[in-house]
């Protein structure tokens, strides 16, 4: 078929503006629904099903190139786009914020290619893609949380060999990780792992819960929603199905603890039961604000709003208000 | 009833052929099969170990001592073809056939190995205490203070300065690293400890102290041991009975005193006479 020419080559444009004007379909003509081709989406969905069947186990998948560098959420995007349908509402969070450039771009990609509604409201969404946070508001059985994962294996911290670590997972041999925790307590008097806290899923597989803060780890336990963890660079995904036991590793006498903020409250909404981050104002003073901006806005309207306000029954969702004197625990480790 | 007994244990590295066993060994004067080139590390080894007994295995370098020791101690990296059977009193079946998980369970509660090479047995980036704690944690200890206490008492018992227990193991002296290995091996109160060349590379005074320490603990804890060494002095000090190996075969065995004072086999006589 040597005489075939592409339609575009036949047209001669006078200027860049004319080219842009001609793209009245926004250039999306010819793209598959939800950007990925159907085979890719099916493959990702099958991998997710396998991951759900073996909670916490890392399942390989193909991981296509995306219009974004690997390591910027390509795993999350592939998982999200594979499970989104036209009736879904999609939310993207980047470190608690809906407004970061990356979150906004991912949201727009889904809106343009998958024709989904987008929202910043956690309770309105069906699928939430998130980087390094789990929302403060309790998720329900109708929702799916897709977490972006930079490092899939919790054991890589103690042994860089994936082959050896796969063998350890196969045999539930997590002695090395326990030594890591032991040495952590020796050094700090308590387990001082800021993020990627090693967690046991369903009493079987050790899982890297992605770099969520310790604050969010208890939310994984016995949750009503499905968690999907997807890594684009490493081409692996794993899942925590609803109502699964998820237990952070800790010693009987050095228990798992979430972050402590002392007396700090959010300077916008006044909350003292949310994950706070420090910001430095122009006056050089440090203030605390909610990390989850969507919930912070709701709290600004209604300071008494519960984290499970939208649910019919009471849902335990992550840590409550840290108890008084929580700072005193820990010990000196000797 | 014996605690551990081996029957016809054979380990061949390489493809192996029918002639391997006949054309190697002491009579043939080699452990490499001239037909197929495979190395017969050990062949047709029978031994048994009684409770609280120390069994010595001596022989020159390359005689198959370590290959045998690794088999008896359930080392996971089992290269080569393995035949024969090893029976252990507290576990039904042949130890050479167990799956990874059983092997893991046995190694974390019944049989410990002190490796010939420090790097095989210890993670030098972990602290000395962490290396000992690993055994406890892997066998299900979940109380930090209990682990800490047990590690400190093991350090005391093996005469390692307790104040060094949180330093990285690579900062330890050779003798201390050897002691950490022994502390680690004893952590879970095993029934059997296999020591592969426990004093290699240590100077004579440290050798004496490590052996003294091990002999004391072995008697206090009533643990059975298999001591593999090329050094007759080590075996003389520790072992009740001794096997002499050459070219992968056991050529002589008996009470240590008898073997050392009245060696029957020509090679054993040479070995004893050439000790400096």
From TrEMBL, chain A:
Record InterPro entries: PhnJ (IPR010306)
Disordered: region residues: 300-334
Keyword Cell membrane set for record: no
UniProt GO molecular function: 4 iron, 4 sulfur cluster binding; lyase activity
Pfam families attached to this UniProt entry: PhnJ
Native organism: Halarchaeum nitratireducens
Bias type Basic and acidic residues, positions: 300-315
Single Gene Ontology BP annotation: organic phosphonate catabolic process
Protein name: Carbon-phosphorus lyase complex subunit PhnJ
Keywords: Lyase
Record lineage: Archaea, Methanobacteriati, Methanobacteriota, Stenosarchaea group, Halobacteria
TrEMBL record, chain B:
SUPFAM superfamilies, per the entry: P-loop containing nucleoside triphosphate hydrolases
Keywords: ATP-binding, Nucleotide-binding
Sample GO molecular function, one term: ATP binding
Coiled coil regions, renumbered to chain: none
Gene3D superfamilies listed in its UniProt record: P-loop containing nucleotide triphosphate hydrolases
SMART domains named among the record's database cross-references: AAA
GO biological-process terms attached to the record: organic phosphonate catabolic process
Residue span, ABC transporter domain: 22-272
Name of protein: ABC transporter ATP-binding protein
Organism: Halarchaeum nitratireducens
């Amino acid at each position: 078929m040597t005489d075939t020419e592409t339609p575009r080559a036949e047209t001669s444009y006078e200027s860049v503006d004319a080219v842009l004007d001609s793209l009245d379909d926004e250039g999306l003509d010819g793209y598959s629904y939800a950007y990925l081709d159907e085979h890719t989406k099916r493959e990702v969905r099958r991998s997710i099903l396998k991951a759900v069947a073996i909670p916490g186990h890392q399942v390989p998948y193909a991981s296509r190139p995306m219009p974004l560098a690997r390591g910027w959420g390509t795993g999350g995007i592939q998982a999200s786009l594979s499970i989104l349908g036209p009736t879904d509402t999609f939310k993207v969070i980047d470190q608690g914020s809906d407004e970061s450039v990356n979150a906004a771009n991912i949201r727009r990609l889904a809106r343009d290619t998958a024709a989904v509604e987008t929202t910043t409201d956690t309770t309105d969404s069906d699928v939430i893609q998130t980087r390094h946070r789990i929302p403060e508001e309790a998720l329900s059985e109708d929702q799916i949380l897709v977490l972006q994962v930079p490092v899939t294996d919790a054991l890589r911290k103690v042994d860089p060999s994936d082959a050896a670590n796969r063998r350890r997972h196969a045999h539930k041999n997590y002695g090395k990780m326990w030594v890591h925790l032991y040495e952590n307590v020796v050094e700090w008097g308590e387990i001082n792992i800021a993020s990627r806290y090693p967690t046991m899923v369903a009493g079987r597989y050790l899982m890297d819960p992605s770099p969520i803060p310790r604050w969010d780890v208890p939310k994984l336990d016995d949750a009503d929603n499905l968690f999907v963890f997807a890594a684009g660079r490493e081409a692996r995904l794993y899942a925590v199905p609803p109502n699964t036991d998820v237990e952070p590793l800790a010693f009987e006498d050095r228990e798992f603890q979430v972050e402590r903020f002392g007396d700090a409250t959010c300077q916008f909404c006044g909350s003292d039961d949310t994950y706070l981050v420090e910001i430095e104002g122009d006056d050089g003073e440090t203030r605390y604000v909610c990390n989850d901006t969507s919930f912070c806005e709701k709290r600004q309207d209604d300071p008494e709003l519960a984290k499970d306000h939208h649910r019919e029954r009471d849902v335990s969702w992550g840590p409550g208000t840290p108890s008084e004197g929580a700072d005193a625990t820990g010990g000196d480790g000797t | 009833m014996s605690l551990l007994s081996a029957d016809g244990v054979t380990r061949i590295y390489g493809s192996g052929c029918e002639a391997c066993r006949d054309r190697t060994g002491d009579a043939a004067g080699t452990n490499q099969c001239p037909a197929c080139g495979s190395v017969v590390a050990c062949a047709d080894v029978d031994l048994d170990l009684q409770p609280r007994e120390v069994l010595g295995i001596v022989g020159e370098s390359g005689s198959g001592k370590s290959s045998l020791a690794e088999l008896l101690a359930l080392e996971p990296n089992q290269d080569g073809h393995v035949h024969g059977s090893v029976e252990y009193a507290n576990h039904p079946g042949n130890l050479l056939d167990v799956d990874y998980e059983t092997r893991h369970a046995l190694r974390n509660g019944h049989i410990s190995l002190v490796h010939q090479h420090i790097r095989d047995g210890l993670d030098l980036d972990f602290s000395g205490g962490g290396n000992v704690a690993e055994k406890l944690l892997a066998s299900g200890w979940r109380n930090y203070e209990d682990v800490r206490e047990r590690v400190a008492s093991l350090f005391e018992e093996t005469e390692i300065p307790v104040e060094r227990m949180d330093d990285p193991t690579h900062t330890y002296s050779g003798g201390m690293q050897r002691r950490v290995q022994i502390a680690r091996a004893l952590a879970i109160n095993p029934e059997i400890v296999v020591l592969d060349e426990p004093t290699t590379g240590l100077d004579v005074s440290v050798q004496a102290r490590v052996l003294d320490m091990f002999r004391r603990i072995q008697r206090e804890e009533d643990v059975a041991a298999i001591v593999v060494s090329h050094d007759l002095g080590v075996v003389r000090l520790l072992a009740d009975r001794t096997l002499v190996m050459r070219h992968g075969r056991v050529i002589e065995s008996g009470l240590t005193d008898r073997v050392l004072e009245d060696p029957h086999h020509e090679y054993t006589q040479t070995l004893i006479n050439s000790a400096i």
